[in-house]
Amino acid sequence: MAAPKNQAAWLTKAGTPLEVGDAPLPTAGPGEIVIKNAAVAINPLDTHMQDVGVFVQQWPAIFGCEVAGVVHSTGPDVDRFRKGDRVIGHTVNLVSGRPQDGAYALYTVVPADKAAILPDHISFTDGVVVPFALEGAVCALSLKVPGVAMPGVSTPALALPYPSLQDPTPSIGKTIVIYGGSSSIGSMATQVATAAGIHVITVAGAHNFEFSKSCGAAQVFDHKDPSIVDKIIEAVTKSGNVFVGIFDAIASPDTYAHDLAIFAKLGGGHLACSHPPPADVPENVKAGMIFAVNDIATPVWKEFVTPALQAGKIKCLPPPLVVGKGLEYVQEGLKKCKAGVSATKLVVEL
Ligand SMILES: NC(=O)c1ccc[n+]([C@@H]2O[C@H](COP(=O)([O-])OP(=O)(O)OC[C@H]3O[C@@H](n4cnc5c(N)ncnc54)[C@H](OP(=O)(O)O)[C@@H]3O)[C@@H](O)[C@H]2O)c1
């Protein structure tokens, strides 16, 4: 039988549109699988990669962080997957720079430790919203020792426990505030923290209160509310738990000003940010920027993701908005992503 043909949405130069064309069919090395992609998702990071070439190590480039599809082949030392398995996977082009590790292709290499079986009742377009946000959430919550996010910027180290399959999850007596409860990474962090027994208070648009609560938030506050800082301080205090800190998934000057005002009243804590943290944080605030590719997530991928999806303990949220079918639609998805989304993830079916 003739080998299948691969195609990719190539970026040949920063600031130019993607070009769909032939690509070599990747092979799986040790600890890797090749996935025949059925759906890929689009993230804000991808728009920066296209615009300015940030993180691109090799031209022309194939980027994109997450895929859902069927295992096409497995490399040596892979025993959790077989050809034909339905899976989701977190792609690592961001760190490896290799084109075969980018999502925007018909076939992509994924480390087996960053993949999980997708239960039969979940579609590929739903499942593909999970991988990048899930690993980002674990990086935001569970690192024990600060690492390097980028030169001169350390990662946060909140050392919170991994999510558990226990239902209901027993409380561990800790409260976290998540700024951006309706964003992709903020809503997944809400689900993951809730599944770790943490009391979660989020900040989202008023139209997304119910959405954030469906991810596990105990209380949600409107980011446009002028008294939001006081309300969050009151809610954290009333929770009666130890205040862990804030995961700021929005990381803008406004949200940072609110974060620091909250810390000033609550005696400091951890500030995990999706971008470099503010300069000059007080000594009682341990601030860092998450970097969403880290082996800290391996036990979660191996032991938690599939049964959690099966049981509905982790839901495929925010829901996908399918932009179209075919690699040609990735460019359209990137354009829509730049325009901004609310409680949704842009997905391209293949
Ligand atoms: N460092 C890393 O490893 C890493 C990993 C993943 C993502 N990121 C970064 O994290 C950020 C979020 O990514 P994402 O994919 O989760 O974004 P997203 O889903 O595209 O974010 C959209 C959401 O942001 C919310 N939002 C906007 N302004 C807000 C504010 N002031 N307060 C609260 N919520 C606000 C909107 O809420 P409403 O519609 O409810 O108003 C909307 O639902 C991006 O900048 C991304 O580049 C970094």
From TrEMBL:
GO molecular function per UniProt: oxidoreductase activity, acting on NAD(P)H
Limits of the Enoyl reductase (ER) domain: 15-348
Gene3D superfamilies xref list: Medium-chain alcohol dehydrogenases, catalytic domain, NAD(P)-binding Rossmann-like Domain
InterPro entries in UniProt: ADH-like_C, ADH-like_N, ER, GroES-like_sf, NAD(P)-bd_dom_sf, Trans-enoyl_RdTase-like
Alphabetical keyword list: Oxidoreductase
UniProt superkingdom: Eukaryota
Coiled coil: none
Recorded family membership: Belongs to the zinc-containing alcohol dehydrogenase family.
Quaternary structure and partners: Monomer.
Record's protein name: Chaperonin 10-like protein
